[in-house]
Amino acid sequence: LKEENATLRSKISKLQVLSETQADKMKKLEKKLEENKIKEEKEAQDLEAMVQHVEQNLQLMTKRAVKAENSAAKLRQENALLQVQLRNYQAENEALQLGQAGLAAAKQNAELALQHLLRVTTTSQTSIRQLLSGAESLQLVADLLKSIDRISEVSEDGQ
């Protein structure tokens, strides 16, 4: 009996040690699970903040692109008007050359109009290039947002 009692006490001791070890492991795993939950929540918040930031940038770029488009349209209109004026000045110049009256003044007006036209043409070309660059940036941001959505969908499916 004493021997059996000692054997049973030894087994109980071993089982208590095993139980404590498993309880410790369980506490560690629960703590790690909680840390992972907190980490995932923070990552989700960071991702959401990044998406919002990208959306704000996209809205800002869209506003800039609209403004650039409007500016380019105005410059095109001004360019067309100046071309009409240039043709009128050239016609006036030809008429004056035929009549030989006021030839120097007409040449000066035509030259002035030509210089103005060239300046406006250069400015409008620059604005159009900027508009195209803005459109490319918008496309890049749109592609980035698409890939972020795909990443979010994949991570949600994986959980």
TrEMBL record:
Give the CC-aspect GO terms: centrosome; ciliary basal body; early endosome; midbody; recycling endosome
Q: Is Coiled coil one of the keywords UniProt gives this record?
A: yes
Keywords attached to this entry: Coiled coil
Per its UniProt record, what InterPro entries does this chain match? ENTR1
**Where in this chain does the entry annotate a coiled-coil region?**
12-99
Q: Which domain of life is it from?
A: Eukaryota
Q: Name one GO biological process term.
A: positive regulation of cilium assembly
What PANTHER family has UniProt attached to this entry?
ENDOSOME-ASSOCIATED TRAFFICKING REGULATOR 1, ENDOSOME-ASSOCIATED-TRAFFICKING REGULATOR 1
Family classification: Belongs to the ENTR1 family.
Its recorded name reads: Endosome-associated-trafficking regulator 1
Species of provenance: Tachuris rubrigastra
The opening ranks of the lineage are:
Eukaryota, Metazoa, Chordata, Craniata, Vertebrata
